[in-house]
Amino acid sequence: MKRLVILGGGESGVGTALLGKAKGYEVFVSDKGKIKEKYKDVLLNNEIEFEDEQHTESKILNANIVMKSPGIPDKVALVKQIREAGITVVSEIEFASKFTEATLVAITGSNGKTTTATLTHHLLKQELDVGLAGNIGDSFAKQILDKNHDNYVLEISSFQLDDIIDFKPKIAVLTNITPDHLDRYDYKFENYVASKFRVVENQTEDDYFIYDGDDEVILEYMKSHQIKSKKLPFSLTKVIEQGAYLDNNNNIIITIDNNKIIMPTNNLALEGKHNVKNAMAASTVAHLLKIRKQTIRESLENFQGVEHRLEHVLKINKVQYINDSKATNVNATYFALESMDAPTVWIVGGVDKGNEYRELFPFVNEKVKAIICLGVDNAKLMESFGNMVDVIIETQYMSEAVKIAYKLASAGDNVLLSPACASFDLFENYEDRGRQFKNAVRNL
Fold first, then answer.
1. Of 74, 109, 151, 436, whose CB has the highest number of CB atoms within 10 Å?
2. Which residues contact 396 (CB under 8 A, 6 or more apart)?
3. pLDDT tier at 424 (50, 70, 90 boundaries)?
4. Helix (H) or strand (E) run with residue 155 in it
5. Is 114 annotated as a binding residue?
């Protein structure tokens, strides 16, 4: 009997444990932290052996295969030992994809992947049986076990791609590449870029690769690396023969094998240039999978967006409060500030991942009237932006940050939470940060 050891008892870990057990593996789950009660209950009910707050090496190094949570870096001593012992290490998407014949759409990129994946799922679900998984929603492995959909839209991080072997999506989407998570890639941007491109490494000429044709990093990489799949770029600036582009009347034109569809963008539910790109990527997938034009158009117009991504919370005294807690890197915050159309009180800060703030300077000069730094260490923010705005204030409490913003904002202004940093210093995760912001706004 093959032994499957799972490192990390979260959503993907427990899902993989259930699928592994159903497929006849001897399963053991080990988590260095505390496993949440709801996951412990599932493991107990399914008679799966587990441990938490420790890793027992003897129970791990006898594995045939190890599935590790994407949150665990390769530098960890235990992971090095596992690899040195010659044990195969995989991610959940690699393990689970072996047990499904479904059509897989894999979406990755530094920004926009959650919105693009959610939007793609929204477009497809009107006419197809489709699951949404990966970095989002219920575990991919568990869905294969419970529902076995005909199609899956998978939001995939570079960490999940680092541990694939044979994973091969029918359609791969790369939204963009900007410096992020460099702490996990020896601070070498090229390592991170290569990691993102693993999404196409097993594809053949029968598969499709949809990517941002305006992204210099992507275009440079493609000059020196051969990609076998059919290429379908999308662009806001050039005419694309096979793929998607924006014409002079702001229509999205999508062409695949002489089959052309035209989508007006004037009624898109999501605002901002970056969302036109997300809509292009999602619509190209839908067009490939034969979703009717009318369905695509209606779905683009009624899509509600993603929680914590430029989410309009409330208007109080004519001030709009906007939750963009999901902006965990500078590029995401760039899009947020770019889309502000009124003077903005900006709440920023958290765990800095080697951020370079220079690209934000033009927007800060033009649109930001005050900055509230919400982090344990705000020195770099103070240094970067201190001379640009009249008011820059530090705090370590969300409730206080929102109260200060309330005092600083006048009628017609925006208050924007767009941290440009990870959330782990003061919050559990970006969702926790976003919910605290929303609660604080509702309590004003």
1. 109
2. 374, 375, 376, 426
3. confident
4. strand 151-155
5. yes
Contacts of 381 (CB under 8 A, 6+ apart): 348, 349, 357, 371, 373, 375, 392
Say if residues 170 and 104 touch (Cβ distance below 8 Å). Answer: yes
d(CA 104, CA 97): 9
DSSP string, 187-244: T-HHHHHHHHHGGGTT--TTSEEEEETT-HHHHHHHHHS---SEEEEEESSS--SSEE
Binning pLDDT at 50, 70 and 90, where does residue 73 land? confident
Q: What is the mean pLDDT of the chain?
A: 93
Tell me: is residue 325 an annotated ligand-binding position: no
Look at residue 381 and tell me whether its pLDDT is greater than 90.
yes
pTM: 0.83
| Sole residue written with tokens 């430029």 | 310
Tokens 């902006």: give the residue.
Answer: 327
In this model, does residue 404 exceed pLDDT 80? yes
Q: pLDDT digits over 171-218, tens only?
A: 999 999 987 767 777 777 888 899 899 999 999 999 999 999 999 999
Nearest to 112 by CA among 278, 355, 246: 278
The helix/strand/coil state of 52 is: strand
The radius of gyration of the chain from alpha carbons, rounded to an integer in Å, stands at 22
Is 111 annotated as contributing to ligand binding? yes
User: Could you tell me which CATH class the domain 94-302 is placed in?
Assistant: alpha beta
> Which class is domain 3-90?
alpha beta
Q: What is the pLDDT of residue 181?
A: 66
Per the CB < 8 A criterion, the answer to whether 267 and 235 are in contact is: no
Confidence of residue 271 (pLDDT cuts 50, 70, 90): confident
Which residue(s) pair with 106 in the sheet? 154, 172
Domain ranges for the chain, please list them. Answer: 3-90, 94-302, 311-442
Q: Is 112 annotated as a binding residue?
A: yes
Was 115 annotated as part of a binding site?
yes
- The token pair at 2 is 């093959």
- Residue 10 annotated in ligand binding: no
Check the annotation: does 139 bind a ligand: no
> Distance between CA atoms of 174 and 109, rounded to whole angstroms?
5
The span from the CA of 277 to the CA of 256, in Å, is 17
Q: What is the CATH T-level fold of the domain 311-442, as seen in this structure?
A: Protein-Tyrosine Phosphatase; Chain A (3.90.190)
Residue-wise burial string across 62-85, b where 16 or more C-beta atoms lie within 10 A, e elsewhere:
ebebbbbbbebeeeeebbeebeee
